[in-house]
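Subject: design request, 156 residues
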């Protein structure tokens, strides 16, 4: 079976539970997640009857949207599903009439920064100490502490 061929990306239905275990892979704070979910649209990647990935599209006001959260189930990472989700997020934002999409990630998230730039996002801002100021617990990635947030933007 070709995993990527089999994946359907669709909005999460109102009566479906939020797949927190996936959202928490991208953002370890449930409090932060619950802060941006109201008003956001959640899209999920489904393979057969299983939800294996997600992204959250948040309106920033005006014609700008932000991908607040994007994740793929850990054992399925590195097989192209994240790229598929990000391409879907961009085309969804475009279809909804947004003129730009931003995505924020930590200074330590080397693979994510690579993926976002590969998909046409450019670094537009650095929020110094973002992870120190907004998260109670220290976050480490690749042995490095998450400190600053890089903001990347794609014009649509
Ligand atoms: N180092 C370098 N490049 C990498 C790595 C790595 N460790 N992992 C993947 N890549 C590259 C791939 O080679 C691919 O590039 P290619 O097309 O040139 O081969 C590209 O990145 C996309 O890889 P995918 O396989 O599509 O990525 P994946 O399915 O793993 O999804 C994601 C990426 C969503 C970041 C996933 O790994 C994940 O869920 N990680 C944990 C949660 C997370 O960090 N989410 C993002 C937080 S920021 C936010 O949510 C706004
Ligand atoms: N991906 C991820 N990590 C890497 C990579 C890589 N491709 N290459 C090295 N590292 C890590 C190493 O694992 C090491 O980390 P560790 O201590 O946790 O194991 C760390 O980076 C340092 O590695 P070194 O072996 O000391 O690096 P190197 O001797 O290769 O020197 C340098 C780095 C100067 C960038 C060298 O590769 C180089 O000359 N590259 C070409 C020229 C260049 O790009 N120079 C920098 C341009 S910017 C400027 O000049 C201001």
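Subject: RE: design request

Done. Sequence follows.
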């Amino acid at each position: 079976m070709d995993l990527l061929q089999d994946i359907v990306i669709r909005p999460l239905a109102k009566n479906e539970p939020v797949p927190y275990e996936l959202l928490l892979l991208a953002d370890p704070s449930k409090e932060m997640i619950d802060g941006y979910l109201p008003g956001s649209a959640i899209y999920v990647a489904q393979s057969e009857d299983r939800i294996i990935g997600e992204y959250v599209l948040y309106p920033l006001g005006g014609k700008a949207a932000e991908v607040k959260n994007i994740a793929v189930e850990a054992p399925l990472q590195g097989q192209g599903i994240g790229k598929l989700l990000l391409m879907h997020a961009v085309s969804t934002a475009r279809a909804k009439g947004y003129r730009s999409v931003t995505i924020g990630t930590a200074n330590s998230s080397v693979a994510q920064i690579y993926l976002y730039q590969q998909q046409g996002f450019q670094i537009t801002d650095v929020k110094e100490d973002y992870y120190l100021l907004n998260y109670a617990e220290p976050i480490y990635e690749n042995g490095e502490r998450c400190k600053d947030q890089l903001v990347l933007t794609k014009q649509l």
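The mean pLDDT is 96.
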